[in-house]
Amino acid sequence: MSVPDPGVLDAVRRRRGDLDDALLIVRDGLVANQAGPRRVAALCAGLRQLRADLYEHVAATEGPDGLYEEVRRADPRFEPAVWRLRDEHTRLGLLLDDLLAGIAHGPQGVAGWPPALQTRVVELLVMLGRHRSRDAQLAYDADGLDLGGQG
Length: 151
Prior knowledge:
By secondary structure, the protein is mainly α. It has one domain: Four Helix Bundle (Hemerythrin (Met), subunit A) (Up-down Bundle). 75% of the residues lie in helices and 0% in strands. It has 5 helices and no strands. The longest helix has 27 residues. The protein is elongated. It starts with 5 loop residues before the first helix and ends in an 8-residue tail after the last helix.
């Protein structure tokens, strides 16, 4: 099986690093000692950055010359895994959009943010962690490559 184009792999690695940075911002927003509007602002900034980085990750992986297409073309047996990862991108994007809308327009709790927000953000982080693991596993299975990153 042919190794994916190095430029494609570099783009995926960069996006993975960007996602790492955004995930840290969101995690910091969850555990911040501050309460109220400053905490909401920090969390919202992290989620917005995460959303932008997810868009870039999707472009690098799902584009016509992206990693998923190269893997699928190289070995059609990977097509179910590729479709699953694409579906996860959609679900992650929708959850991020919903969280951002909830922060902007939801009722504010005692701590200054919607009462169920923390649970939903943790759910997002878990989903992203699992997705990232499956994404890296696909690349490894397809070509024995390590995409790098922290997760």
